[in-house]
Amino acid sequence: MRFPVAGIVITNGEVWKEQRKYCMNTAQELGLGLGHWEDLIMDEISGFIEKIQEHKGTPVDIYNYLMSSIISNIITLLIGRRLREPHKIEMLVNYTSTVTAFMGASLITSALPGLRKFCEVFKIAGYDKAAQYNRDFMSFLKEEINRHKTSPEFKDMHDFINAYLNKMAELSKSKNTNHFFSEPELEGNLVSLFLGATDTIFSSLGWLFRIMSAHKDIQEKVYQELMDAVGKDGRARYDERDKIPYTFAVLMEAQRYASNVPMPGNRIATDDIPIDGYVIPKGTEIAANLWALHRDPNYWDNPEKFRPERFLTADGTKLIKQPQSYAPFSVGFKEGKFLSDPTVLDGTAQSQANRVFDIVEGWGLSENIYALCFETTASYIRLKNGAFFQLENHLKRKILFLA
């Protein structure tokens, strides 16, 4: 299993600067996440809410519903069409659920790539299935790029793939070779944007749902603001966020409180960097500790408390949009941020307007604990071959799994 060797998550130096700038500018030019795209996002969120409401107030695991909805949103914005094939949506869910778990920089298999290959070949800990999901996803991207290059109905689509292909054609026509644009970079950028957005949205909404369920007073304030500003359906557009300052402050505080991206991807120093008498040598990997940034008591009063008001002016009518020591998506441009913000806002607004989340009251353990299991990643990502599932099979009954 290999992550693409190109794209804004992986690259550094001049190629990263060029591709990062292009992704930012193209996202703004295409209006990704806004306008027509925002309508698609709202429709997908509405579908997710309807799925939850079908359970009529009974407890439900929202993982598949939420992940499928998010993936449908993001892939539509990148490839210019909605996926209608259930098997492809399932493939994207499998890929998203496994890639970060098996490709994390802190894993020993990342430090020793040969060990990862060994685990794949001998089918250890789910690495073989993860590798297959990765191959399936990369084949899917190549197929979509080829479709945009050859199919008349896709050539004129106003989407990220066509924008990039047109840029490549423009550079080729001008015989300009002083650039890094290529199909491998396009594939890598699509992977970066897709994973960056899906991971950000899923973790952001997951934390928001948990926090809102535990804070009924905050939930009520958000509900009242939404009813007054946008109406009963709760469809809040991103460019209308100033009309709902408290709701957006809740979103920002959740991103600070949870630090959804506690340690963003590493970068490599391309030159020696002097800072306060120290020198960071060229070639050093650099990572930002965003969790520490968001819990620094020098900037945040009682940082362990969830308090949306810290992002509002004294009269509570306006947002403080750029407070110090706040960088939920890392410093500067975060892959997928322009796709994630409108989705997180609408997901929060519609879910609260429809009052679909709550804490299950009176729940408890009714049987003795049989074992304490140090779980493997394979069970958590539902490959069903980790220690948790082996314990279930041994006991011949379902057991509680706390991850």
TrEMBL record:
Organism superkingdom = Eukaryota
Q: Which organism is it from?
A: Araneus ventricosus (Orbweaver spider)
A cellular component term, taken from the record's GO annotations? cytoplasm
Record bears the keyword Oxidoreductase = yes
Q: What GO MF annotations does this protein's record show?
A: heme binding; iron ion binding; oxidoreductase activity, acting on paired donors, with incorporation or reduction of molecular oxygen, reduced flavin or flavoprotein as one donor, and incorporation of one atom of oxygen; steroid hydroxylase activity
Xref: SUPFAM superfamilies: Cytochrome P450
Name of the protein described by the UniProt record = Cytochrome P450 2U1
Which InterPro entries does its entry note? Cyt_P450, Cyt_P450_E_grp-I, Cyt_P450_sf, Cytochrome_P450_fam2
Query: What family is this?
Result: Belongs to the cytochrome P450 family.
* UniProt keyword Oxidoreductase present: yes
